[in-house]
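FAQ
Q: What does a multi-component entry look like?
A: The components come first, one per line:
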Amino acid sequence: MEFGTIEREIFVEAAPEIVFDVVSSPDHLKQWWPDDAQYEPVPGGSGEIVFGDLDADGMAVAFTVVDAEPPRRFSFRWTHPSGAVAASGNSLLVTFDLTPSGAGTLLKMTESGFREMGWEVALLEHQYQDHVTGWDFYLPRLVTYVAKLEARP
Amino acid sequence: MTDDEIWSAIGDPTRRRMLDLLLTHGGGTATSLAQQLPVTRQAVAKHLGVLDRVGLVQGAQSGREKRYFVDDAQLARAAAQLSSVGAAWDARLQRIKRIAESIQRTQQD
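Then the predicted structure of the entire assembly, as tokens:
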């Protein structure tokens, strides 16, 4: 097991252009991760992603685009101190590599920087709740519930 | 002891190899580990000291040498933290897949 990096691969039945858009555009990002996202999806584009409600106990986290090569690669750094230049040692680096495969796309995600920025800090940053977690929990239950209703005579 | 110390202890490739060997053989001494690694007994002893300090291994005197064992609970705690980050990404990637595939279907219609 490599302890400094997290790697995942998933096959998506959609064209690389579509997958690139979903992993890179702020509007799509907030559908699968934070509650809000503001940044330009171009190299050097920096901004923030927001978890929760900023007026309550929400949190804004710095986000800087490193690489944007449609439709092959999108990478960004996050969790660096607001206002600081994102670099190795102060942030986590997430890279999406897209490879055309049959009628779809092989999407590879790598997150690194845990060891460089210190494990305790890095893992803490991951405590932000994905706003969608609730849906992941409830949706399958809802589907089961509906199926049960339909099964009734 | 902080999580940071655990992770920097586990971050070193030689120390990870030592943990592997200790797990495989159900324990070992600085001498037995040095025989299986390209480093000196002194270096192994030093690494064991680091692992001992963060609680990843525990030593028990056995004759002239200390015999070390992996602390399963502490190792599991470290592994669980990393796998929770991995699980969060698994969920995000599933959502990315769902969104992209529904856009693809819309465009085909």
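Q: Is there any commentary attached?
A: Sometimes. For this entry: Helices of chain A lie at 16-24, 26-32, 114-117, 119-125, 133-151.
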